[in-house]
């Protein structure tokens, strides 16, 4: 088997821990392993794809933290799967959902709705704080009666399909869009694993690929702040009158700019949910564009 992965390891002192986690959260989507050293520093380990983008992440780490002793070595793909078996931990979100890999599916808690995700190098496994934020928002919406079975949703920038799968397991039907064909293949696989492929359809494309008059009861977009600002008008016009809008992938310091873009289109202040450096914005009873 060819060496198509890079195993990377580096260490940061305690005072740089939060900066390191923030960097990794933005640079990669699939998670990493952390171990604490006796001197208070943190050792990070993850796998990157062995191409220019992966090498660029390594170069950035070395430029930011010259003393991090950043080490990399080529690794075979099977090491990726084995590594996840070593440090993938189930994630509980909103007292409703539980994200699990296939090999831990028999350990699921009876009181939680399982979302089974096959780890992939390029796509989210649910460990990113913004994914948990979005799932918590969806659980709250369902608990408070704002969303219900039979409603229709849009998961924009679906990635591995976690949010769309969660909504489908709440009884909704909908569409996941992503501009990356590999993400759509991954989301489709996960939808089938979770037995929701009939109610959660996925397709390659962005918000502009939708018919202008197509609206959804729930629109969720876990992307980044700048695209959310740029696409604000297009996103809002696809939210049904009285519907719900959940946005994430936003740093707390970026939230005012995102909120301002949507308030200029007539929305009120959103409910704000925070997790560390990240936040999610939630609107209910949207008046429509």
Walk me through this protein's architecture.
This protein has 289 residues and is an alpha/beta fold. The protein folds into two domains: 5-82, Alpha-Beta Plaits (2-Layer Sandwich); 124-286, Vaccinia Virus protein VP39 (Rossmann fold). Helices cover 31% and strands 30% of the residues. It is built from nine helices and 14 strands. It has helices spanning 17-27, 52-64, 77-87, 129-143, 162-169, 181-193, 225-230, 232-236, 255-263, and strands at 5-12, 33-36, 42-49, 71-75, 91-93, 97-100, 113-116, 152-156, 173-178, 200-204, 216-222, 239-251, 271-275, 278-286. The strands form three sheets. It has a seven-stranded mixed sheet, sandwiched between helices. A four-stranded antiparallel sheet has the order 2-3-1-4. Helix 4 runs parallel beside helix 5. The longest helix is centred in the middle third of the chain and has 15 residues, at 129-143. The termini are far apart. The mean pLDDT is 85.
Concise account of the structure shown:
With 289 residues, the chain is of the alpha/beta class.
Topology of helices and strands:
Blueprint: E1 5-12, H1 17-27, E2 33-36, E3 42-49, H2 52-64, E4 71-75, H3 77-87, E5 91-93, E6 97-100, E7 113-116, H4 129-143, E8 152-156, H5 162-169, E9 173-178, H6 181-193, E10 200-204, E11 216-222, H7 225-230, H8 232-236, E12 239-251, H9 255-263, E13 271-275, E14 278-286
Parallel strand pairs: 6-7, 8-9, 8-11, 9-10, 11-12
Antiparallel strand pairs: 1-3, 1-4, 2-3, 5-6, 12-14, 13-14
Helix pairs in contact: 4-5
């Amino acid at each position: 088997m060819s060496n198509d992965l890079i195993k990377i390891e580096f260490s940061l002192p305690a005072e740089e821990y939060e900066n390191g986690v923030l960097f990794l959260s933005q640079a990669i989507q699939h998670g990493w392993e952390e171990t604490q050293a006796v001197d208070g520093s943190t050792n990070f380990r993850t796998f990157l794809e062995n191409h220019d983008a992966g090498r660029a992440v390594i170069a950035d780490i070395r430029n930011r933290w010259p003393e991090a002793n950043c080490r990399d070595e080529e690794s075979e793909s099977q090491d990726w799967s084995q590594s996840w078996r070593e440090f993938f931990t189930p994630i509980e979100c909103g007292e409703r959902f539980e994200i699990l890999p296939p090999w831990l599916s028999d350990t699921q808690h009876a009181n939680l709705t399982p979302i089974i995700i096959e780890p992939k190098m390029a796509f989210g496994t649910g460990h990113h704080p913004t994914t948990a934020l979005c799932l918590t928002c969806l659980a709250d919406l369902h608990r408070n009666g704002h969303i219900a079975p039979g409603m229709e949703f849009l998961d924009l920038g679906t990635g591995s399909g976690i949010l769309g799968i969660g909504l489908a397991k709440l009884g909704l039907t909908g569409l996941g869009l992503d501009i990356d064909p590999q993400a759509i293949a991954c989301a489709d696989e996960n939808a089938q694993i979770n037995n929701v492929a009939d109610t959660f359809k996925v397709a390659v494309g962005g918000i502009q690929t939708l018919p202008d008059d197509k609206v959804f009861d729930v629109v969720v977009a876990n992307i980044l702040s700048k695209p959310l600002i740029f696409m604000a008008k297009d996103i809002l016009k696809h939210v049904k009158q009285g519907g719900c809008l959940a946005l994430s992938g936003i740093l707390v310091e970026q939230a005012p700019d995102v909120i301002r873009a949507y308030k200029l289109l007539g929305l009120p202040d959103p409910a704000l949910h925070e997790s560390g450096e990240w936040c999610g914005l939630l609107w209910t009873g949207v008046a429509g564009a």
